[in-house]
Amino acid sequence: MSAGEPEKETCSAEDLGAELLQSVREMKAGQAARVTEVEPNEVAQARRNTGLSQAEFAAAMHISKRTLQEWEQGRRSPSGAAQALIRLVSRHPEIVRESLG
């Protein structure tokens, strides 16, 4: 170990098993250490409002499913025209459902 490196704590398989079991008991008792809530972005919310799957929504919007996933996960943003369409779909989800029919 070189200078400045933290010392690694080792534990036996038995200790690890006991810690995991304790964690499961705490989760079941509702004693989770943290709770993470993720708010869906505008694109994901618009799709959910339509009741369509990602594949169905992407087909109706004439985009790839992968592009939709990128938008929903916030890795990419829709262009200006696509953003306007997303806002329209948010207000009138029936439009997208009708386009598939």
Describe the structure.
By secondary structure, this protein is mainly α. It has a domain at 42-100: 434 Repressor (Amino-terminal Domain), CATH 1.10.260.40. Helix content is 59%, strand content 0%. It contains six helices and no strands. It has helices at residues 13-28, 42-50, 54-61, 65-72, 80-91, 94-100. The longest helix has 16 residues, at 13-28. The chain is elongated and about 60 Å long. The model has no long low-confidence stretch (mean pLDDT 84).
- Which class do the helix and strand fractions yield? mainly alpha
Q: Secondary-structure element order, as H and E?
A: HHHHHH
Largest sheet: none
N- to C-terminal distance:
66 Å
Helix fraction? 55-70%
The level 1 CATH classification of the domain at 42-100 is Mainly Alpha
Give the arrangement of secondary structure elements.
Elements: H1 13-28, H2 42-50, H3 54-61, H4 65-72, H5 80-91, H6 94-100
Helix pairs in contact: 2-5, 3-4, 3-6
Keywords:
mainly alpha; 101 residues; 6 helices; 434 Repressor (Amino-terminal Domain)
Provide a compact summary of the structure:
This protein is an all-alpha fold and 101 residues long. The chain has 6 helices and no strands.
